[in-house]
Specification:
Pfam families: PCuAC. This is Copper chaperone PCu(A)C. The chain is about 15% helix and about 45% strand. A hairpin with a 5-residue loop joins strand 5 and strand 6.
Amino acid sequence: MTRSARAFSRPLFRSFEERIGIAVFALLLLFASTQQMLAHGFKAGDLEIGHPWSRATPAGAKVAAGYLTITNNGSQADRLVSIQSDVSEKAEIHEMAVDAKGVMKMRQITDGLEIPAGGEVALKPGAYHIMFIGLKAQVKEGDKFSGTLTFEKAGTVTVEFQADKIGGQSQDHSGH
């Protein structure tokens, strides 16, 4: 057998270590691709924060709203107690509710928002939401900005809000 024929007849991976290396590399590639699919989800302890988003604001606006879902996979309730953002001077948790006269009113939730054990809370238009107050700049469609959520038990987690068009995203985005 000639030298070139022997080169083609030997196994592609000669050692067990080479085989393990290839398997680890393949798993890393798989992990990296799954992270892209989950790119708009965040975790803090037993809590999963899904698809934080906001709407673009008109020029000169001083407030914006933020929306997301929080799923508690734990056996104990937790509480969203505060929010900070790099896009505004302050951020607050608000609730839209209909009063006894049938009028929709917005009010600040000062004692935090409970996330029940095994449950989910959706911050969405017309319900609980985040108010970004004292905007430092206009929020434009396609912009991304960070916000830090602080939970009573799970601690803090920084999430990224994505701005959609003015009046956009009133449909369900749990699959993002």
